[in-house]
Amino acid sequence: MNIAPTPRRSSGFSLGEQLTVLTIVGLIAVIAVPQLDLFGTSARRHQNRRAAENIVHVHAIGQAAGVEWPAGGVAAKVMAVVAGGKPTRGAFANRVFEATVKPDTVEGTFVFIGMRPNGDLFFDPKAEQNPDGF
């Protein structure tokens, strides 16, 4: 009895090739996944920076228009600007000056906002202020 050899199929990947690809994909994932969180952190920091700029801007404009912001630390003033304030007299007496920042996102802005001895808020682009808003 003669048995004819069947031709070997060459299509498809061998087990060794598949393991090599899986190993490479795994290494890429190990390197790339922690970097993805940096994008989220960077985006949040940028968002907090923009919110701080908005708060300081509204505070300065409101103060120039005659809004009497409450005394206190940075946190108290920031929350007052987020809540909004009206001047008691003048051309802008019916205008509400309030920051376009959600109250639950205010805490991240404190590192960008400082307070001068006269009570004015200022923007610190280096983010070297007290993170607790004091």
Task: Characterise the protein shown here.
This protein is mainly alpha-helical and 134 residues long. It is built from 2 helices and 2 strands, in the order ααββ. It has one domain. A two-stranded antiparallel sheet has the order 1-2. The longest helix has 51 residues. The mean pLDDT is 86.
Strand content: under 5%
What low-confidence regions span 5 or more consecutive residues with pLDDT below 50?
Answer: none
Secondary-structure element pattern, one letter each: HHEE
What is the end-to-end distance? Answer: 95 Å
Rg calculated over all Cα atoms: 29 Å
Largest sheet: 2 strands, antiparallel
User: How many β-strands, per DSSP?
Assistant: 2
The helix fraction, in percent, is: 40-55%
Secondary structure category: mainly alpha
Count, helices: 2
Shape: rod-shaped
